[in-house]
Amino acid sequence: MIGRSSTDYLPIKIPVGLRFANPTYGLRARMKPMTTLPATSEKPLARDGFIMAMIALLGLGTMMVFSSTGATRVLELRTDYLVKHLTFLSLVGVMFLTVINLPTRLILKLAPWMYLAGLGLLALVLIPGLGVKINGARRWFHLGPVSLQPSEFMKIFLPLFLATMSRWSRQRTYTLANGIAFIAILITPVLIAIEPDLGTAAIVFCMGACYLFLAGFPLKLFVAGFSCMVPVLGGLMLYRPYQLKRVMDYVTALGNWENAQYQVKQSLLSIGSGGMWGIGPGRGLQKLSFLPESHTDFVFAVIGEELGLVGTLATISLWLLLFLCGVKLVQSVQQDRERFALAGTLLAGIVIQAAINVCVVTSLVPPKGISHPLLSYGGSNLLATMLAFALIINLTQQQKNTLSDDHLHSTQFD
């Protein structure tokens, strides 16, 4: 081809056998592997697009935090929301720059301790007097002027822990590694569901399953995991009838608007009143104590009212850009099963959470208290989301060697 040398598209051999478990089993083992990759990488462009979309969403989130807390500033004379959010942004920025430059091996060495610490906090938060109960859920620790929600960080710590189990599996301890991973994926969402927080519990469980899928985990453990998890979550819904009632009310309201729940009505009114271009930033009316949790779970409705259909589509487009660039980054490390599985799981978890939040706000699924990453107010959510993005960049830029202990399969990318 004119203008290209013969080395532009050299075949790169994809190492085989870097599976989480026995390479003859698992869903990934049944998939046809890619055998060549282009030597010229589009990764720098994908990384720049990923970071720009992330920064744009952070900027939009900061504007929406200021706008959606306007009623609180007037009615409760509180001005600390924006100050706290900007403080969180500063701390998160330092954390982000630190994590992307840490050695990946160091992060994986710390992963078991981070997971055990997170698991301990999940247990401690359930103890009255230690965990703070808000709106019937005991999910937070109060540490002076700030609150800490341990369940947010388990979205990161669980996949990291599973990556550590993947390293153990190469030492031929398949049964032990599989057993520990199976227990971790079950016990973590169960502790979160007890708070109760079924939405976060479901996301954490799905992220664990996503990692095992990408890492080639045996199919029989998928079946066993879902067989154990479904009765547990079903039992918790029966134990707390209001959660089942929430689902039934949603089904009933599909044919009768009058039966819709209050927050659903207000959310749809907010989005509908915005029209094409919105009524203007800061001019929304539904956030004036009409729309519950307008600065957290329903911040996307405030975007719809103040920025209109154009604003909501722009927000979704930014998430789509971030996702597509993230997929490019993840694909660039496909030759290393651990990096591929871990980065892919973190990306999928955050994007799925954003998609679920949009579906809740637009009444496509039953209402559930799930915040919108990068847009909702909340330090724990912001820190966990940015930690996930920092790890994705870290995993996809430090790729001189695979994460295998023997360094048998090393590949250099641009």
TrEMBL record:
Q: Which GO terms describe its biological process?
A: cell division; peptidoglycan biosynthetic process; regulation of cell shape
Q: Which Pfam families match?
A: FTSW_RODA_SPOVE
Superkingdom per UniProt: Bacteria
Catalysed reactions, semicolon-separated: [GlcNAc-(1->4)-Mur2Ac(oyl-L-Ala-gamma-D-Glu-L-Lys-D-Ala-D-Ala)](n)-di-trans,octa-cis-undecaprenyl diphosphate + beta-D-GlcNAc-(1->4)-Mur2Ac(oyl-L-Ala-gamma-D-Glu-L-Lys-D-Ala-D-Ala)-di-trans,octa-cis-undecaprenyl diphosphate = [GlcNAc-(1->4)-Mur2Ac(oyl-L-Ala-gamma-D-Glu-L-Lys-D-Ala-D-Ala)](n+1)-di-trans,octa-cis-undecaprenyl diphosphate + di-trans,octa-cis-undecaprenyl diphosphate + H(+)
Enzyme Commission number: 2.4.99.28
Keywords attached to this entry: Cell shape, Glycosyltransferase, Membrane, Peptidoglycan synthesis, Transferase, Transmembrane, Transmembrane helix
Can you say where in the cell this protein is located?
Answer: Membrane
Topological category with respect to the lipid bilayer: Multi-pass membrane protein
Keyword match Transit peptide: no
Q: What protein family does this chain belong to?
A: Belongs to the SEDS family. FtsW subfamily.
Instruction: Check the record and name the PANTHER family matching this protein.
Output: CELL CYCLE PROTEIN, PEPTIDOGLYCAN GLYCOSYLTRANSFERASE FTSW-RELATED
User: Under which name does UniProt file this protein?
Assistant: Probable peptidoglycan glycosyltransferase FtsW
